[in-house]
Write a structure and sequence with these properties.
- Keywords: Lipid degradation, Lipid metabolism, Secreted.
- It is built from 12 helices and 11 strands.
- The chain is of the alpha+beta class.
- Among the domains are: about 120 residues, no CATH class; about 70 residues, Phospholipase A2 (Up-down Bundle).
- It has a 7-stranded antiparallel sheet, sandwiched between helices. Strands 8-11 form a two-stranded antiparallel ribbon. Strands 9-10 form a two-stranded antiparallel ribbon.
- A hairpin with a 2-residue loop joins β2 and β3.
Length: about 300
């Protein structure tokens, strides 16, 4: 190999896209570590210069290119059936990573699905029942959590790159119940609700709405419990009757004198609440009864 040939080869390599440059890096290293038979054709000075050029190009590319852009894989769909019956379906499309895990339910047709999706800025997890209704969800912008999730795609991405370089659309590792195929931009047919799974904005909005609904139901439930308890409290008081309608010691009803007395009874160390038994005595009254020492106060 002549010196001019080496220069021409180096120029061609530098004109290639950055990912191809990284992929051909081992080839550069082989040239730089040529054995004695090749060393006779290249001077030590030329070898050192080419090493420095390749190293500088590699460092600049590494520092200036974001991780997701630098490692962006081809669009793909992967399906893997685990030993316990769970099915993992992974999708990558234009910067969005999505994982659907299906877990068999107690019935023959029932199942739960866990959706996990990230666009590199947000991470959303959603649990759906067999009808596709959201059971629970959460969203996060934690960078570490996002990076950990995206890193779980490393094995799939490596295999997808092999398919892309070979120019094929073959399924891999069929014997291991693991298939990977490259997909057109809009092909999500292998995943139920595939378009929604990749829609980070919509999933986040639905998760927020779920949280609002749950809070409203909890508030309604607490209000219902409070209304039932109010029936057994004397009007104008917070402490006279079964239990109390407040948890704050300094809150009294507009009938403050009676309420203060009832509160003292309630905080007596020896009491029997209305319609309850204690000390082998059943209190059939609506109000709490107290030990005589408390009454004398």
């Amino acid at each position: 190999m002549s010196r001019d040939g080496l220069r021409d080869g180096g120029a061609v390599q530098r004109r290639k896209a950055a990912p191809i440059l990284i992929g051909r890096l081992p080839h550069f290293l082989k040239l730089f570590t040529a054995d004695a038979a090749h060393a006779s054709l290249i001077t030590h000075t030329s070898q050192l210069a080419m090493r420095q050029v390749a190293f500088v190009v590699f460092i600049i590319y590494t520092l200036c290119t974001p991780v997701i852009t630098r490692s962006r894989p081809p669009n793909l769909i992967s399906q893997r059936v685990l030993n316990d019956g769970e099915v993992e379906k992974r999708i990558y499309r234009d910067g969005t990573f999505a994982l659907e895990t299906s877990v068999p339910g107690p019935g023959s047709t029932s199942q739960l699905r866990l959706w996990q999706v990230s666009n590199g800025r947000q991470f959303i997890q959603t649990i759906l029942d067999s009808r596709g209704k959201i059971v629970d969800c959460e969203f996060s912008s934690d960078k570490l959590e996002i990076e950990e999730f995206i890193s779980t795609f490393d094995g799939v991405v490596t295999r997808a790159r092999v398919l892309a370089e070979d120019g094929t659309i073959l399924e891999l590792e069929r014997g291991m119940n693991w298939t990977i195929r490259l997909t057109p931009v809009d092909d999500n047919n292998d995943v139920v609700d595939g378009d929604l799974l990749l829609d980070v904005k919509t999933l986040r909005a639905e998760c927020k709405q779920k949280h609002v609904t749950v809070k409203a139901r909890m508030a309604k439930f607490k209000k219902g419990m409070r209304n039932k308890r109010d029936v057994f409290i004397y009007p104008g008081t917070n402490w006279c009757g079964v239990g109390a309608t407040t948890e704050r010691y300094n809150e009294l009803g507009f009938n403050a004198a009676a309420d203060r007395c009832c509160r003292q009874h309630d905080f007596c160390s020896h009491i029997i609440e209305g319609f309850s038994s204690k000390y082998n005595i059943f209190n059939y009254r609506l109000h709490t009864i107290s030990h005589c020492d408390c009454d004398e106060r």
